[in-house]
Amino acid sequence: MSFYDNHYYHLNKRLLSIIGQWPYQSRLESNTMLGITLFFTGSLTFLEGWGLVSGITDLSIIMENASPMLVNIFIFVKLLNYFFNKYKMKELLDHVEETWKMMQVGPRNEILRSYAEQNKVYTIRYTLALYTMWILYSTTPLIVSWTYKLLPINATYTARFLYRLEHVCDVDKYFNLLMLHGFISVFYIVSVPIAVDTMFVLCIQHVCALFEIIKYDMEHIQGSDFVTLELDIADDIEYHKIIECIKLHDQAFKLVPVGNTL
């Protein structure tokens, strides 16, 4: 069982696995999931671009197609950036696991648990918020279409899709197929920022935990009542605590640039 199968970090693992960016995935699984993500993201962007180019003279088409297409491009850049910094994420996760192994009991462990719990809460809230937006956005055409079918409205209704495509293909004919494709595509588009941003939260929370541990250790270092010219460093517990605090401080600062790459 992997360390990241614990309830604090399991959701982070699953989110990154969906887009094929979990550092500990097998190469086959990672490439497969990444390929699926790129296929749906790319195909949706292509269709939006096709509709935009074909209706470039229509301002309403430009407005309705350009916005989601720009969002898709932003998501693609975000995914690409994470892909090229994936090795840094592995270093971060290795450090997190090593820190937990070093501090399995005591007040230090309680600090780690506290910040890990905060990370879990933030991740769940962010995930629920964005996936709720995904469902509401993706199902809007269906809800409107069903409303016109079920309610006695005396008006002719032409199915409206997530973006303008009716000028290049028969949207009514392929409505269900396009809706299925759009639903899955938007899921992967939303999954990218969820996975990457929650990884950023994990990094920040872990660094904060390290600084909190340093604060705790420094506050509990006992001062000596006398000064001796011949220090016995090997048996000086407080000296070793200070050295350990310095090492933790150095490790925390090394992790800050990792978070900045996300």
Name the descriptors.
single chain, about 260 residues, mainly alpha, about 75% helix, olfaction, membrane, 7tm6_olfct_rcpt
What can you tell me about this protein's structure?
The protein is mostly helical and 262 residues long. Helix content is 74%, strand content 0%. Helix 1 packs antiparallel against helix 6. It is elongated. The two termini are 27 Å apart. It is a multi-pass membrane protein.
Question: What is the straight-line distance between the termini?
Answer: 27 Å
Approximate strand percentage = under 5%
Task: State the share of residues found in helices, binned by percent.
Answer: over 70%
Largest sheet: none
Strand pairing plus helix content: what structural class?
Answer: mainly alpha
Which radius of gyration do the C-alpha atoms yield?
26 Å
How many strands in all?
A: 0
Q: How many domains make up the coordinates?
A: 1
Give the overall silhouette: elongated
* Helix count, DSSP H or I runs of 4 or more residues: 7
Mean pLDDT value: 85
Order of helices and strands: HHHHHHH
Low-confidence stretches: none
Protein name: Odorant receptor
Pfam families: 7tm_6 (PF02949)
Membrane topology: Multi-pass membrane protein
GO biological process, one term: signal transduction
Task: Describe what is shown at a glance.
The chain has 262 residues and is mainly α. 74% of the residues lie in helices and 0% in strands.
Map the helices and strands.
Elements: H1 10-18, H2 27-54, H3 59-84, H4 86-102, H5 106-150, H6 175-219, H7 237-260
Helix pairs in contact: 1-6, 2-3, 2-6, 3-6, 5-6, 6-7
